[in-house]
């Protein structure tokens, strides 16, 4: 198991909801579990095939019925499975595997060696189809918006979803790539998030990436975003922090925040929660403020 990738993963709210459902199996409690799962990242054991690609492993019961096994945290994964490949996957991607008729799965089993909660294929397919329809509607809406609105939506997608998700799931690998590739990597992320036919309105020169090794326990990367943050939420710049020893990461934003005046300091946690941390410091002391917050966050988790 890639310890750098799984150390950051936390699904405490999901795990609590699963236990609540186990004690009282109502429709409402199951809905709560599903709603908490939808934005979550999960661990999926896999094997590497002849093409050097990771393929999810399926568990079979005594009757030979196969399920996709997923885990909410590394503590839920048995010791023998931790020694093999374990992928970090968003819940909707797991749904896509179960919904694929080629696999003939009967559902998804959450934490099979502890909670053993089974979500049947019919439910998973409904969730998957709903997500696909929502994505289709969003794509249609994006194709009909103005260039300015399109750029705004693209910025939000990258700044508040894709960048923090890659930092928290890929950890040190992503930090090292960003230090090496800098503006080219950021522009590439925008390229992949763009819609066919609309493209990426930005080029590498629109970004500025500065990587600093503050100490043996802190790497800091500053990313200046294009133009000005004229809409909310919208980032002037973002800061990624990473401790090469503990493998803990942090994602901070200097942004225009809804219903607030001036520049605000924000943060995204590993579960995708966006937090307003108050008025942003003046630009001259901005870097020091991020360093101090990263060091303080490290101490609270020791």
Describe it for me?
This protein has helices at 3-6, 12-23, 27-37, 79-82, 91-99, 121-143, 147-170, 172-181, 183-193, 283-300; strands spanning 41-48, 54-56, 58-60, 66-70, 86-90, 107-110, 117-120, 208-215, 218-224, 234-242, 249-256, 263-268, 274-279. It is of the alpha+beta class. The strands form three sheets. Strands 8-9-10-11-12-13 form a six-stranded antiparallel β-sheet, sandwiched between helices. The chain has a four-stranded mixed β-sheet with strand order 3-4-6-7. Strands 2-1-5 form a three-stranded antiparallel β-sheet. Strand 10 (234-242) and strand 11 form a beta hairpin.
Describe this structure in a few short sentences.
The protein has 302 residues and is an alpha+beta fold.
Poorly predicted runs: 1-7
pLDDT average, as an integer? Answer: 87
Q: Total number of β-strand segments?
A: 13
**Helical residue percent band:** 40-55%
Let me know the largest β-sheet: 6 strands, antiparallel
Strand order in space, largest sheet: 8-9-10-11-12-13
- Report the principal-axis shape: globular
Question: How many angstroms does the end-to-end distance come to?
Answer: 22 Å
What series of H and E elements makes up the topology? Answer: HHHEEEEHEHEEHHHHEEEEEEH
Strand content bin: 25-35%
Key attributes of the depicted protein:
42% helix, alpha+beta, four-stranded mixed β-sheet, globular, 302 residues, 13 strands, disordered N terminus, 10 helices
């Amino acid at each position: 198991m890639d310890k750098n990738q799984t150390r950051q993963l936390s699904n405490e709210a999901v795990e609590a909801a699963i236990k609540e459902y186990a004690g009282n199996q109502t429709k409402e409690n199951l809905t709560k579990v599903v709603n908490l799962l939808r934005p979550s990242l999960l661990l999926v054991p896999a094997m590497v095939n002849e093409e050097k690609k990771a393929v999810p492993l399926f568990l079979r019961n005594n009757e030979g019925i196969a399920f996709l096994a997923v885990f909410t945290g590394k503590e839920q994964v048995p010791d023998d499975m931790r020694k093999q490949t374990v992928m970090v996957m968003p819940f909707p991607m797991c749904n896509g595997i179960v919904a694929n008729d080629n696999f003939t799965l009967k559902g998804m089993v959450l934490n099979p060696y502890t909670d053993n909660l089974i979500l049947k294929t019919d439910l998973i397919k409904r969730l998957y189809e709903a997500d696909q329809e929502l994505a289709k509607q969003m794509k249609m809406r994006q194709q009909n918006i103005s260039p300015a609105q399109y750029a705004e939506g693209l910025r939000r997608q990258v700044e508040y979803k894709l960048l923090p998700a890659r930092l928290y799931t890929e950890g040190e690998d992503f930090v090292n790539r960003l230090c090496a590739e800098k503006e080219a990597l950021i522009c590439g992320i925008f390229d992949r998030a763009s819609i066919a036919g609309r493209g990426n309105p930005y080029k590498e020169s629109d970004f500025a990436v500065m990587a600093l090794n503050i100490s043996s326990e802190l790497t800091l990367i500053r990313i200046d975003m294009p133009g000005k943050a004229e809409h909310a939420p919208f980032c002037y710049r973002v800061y990624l922090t990473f401790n090469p020893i503990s493998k803990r990461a942090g994602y901070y934003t200097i942004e225009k925040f809804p219903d607030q005046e001036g520049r605000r300091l924000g943060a995204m946690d590993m579960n995708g929660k966006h937090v307003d941390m108050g008025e942003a410091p003046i630009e001259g002391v901005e870097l020091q403020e991020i360093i101090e917050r990263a060091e303080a966050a490290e101490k609270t988790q020791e």
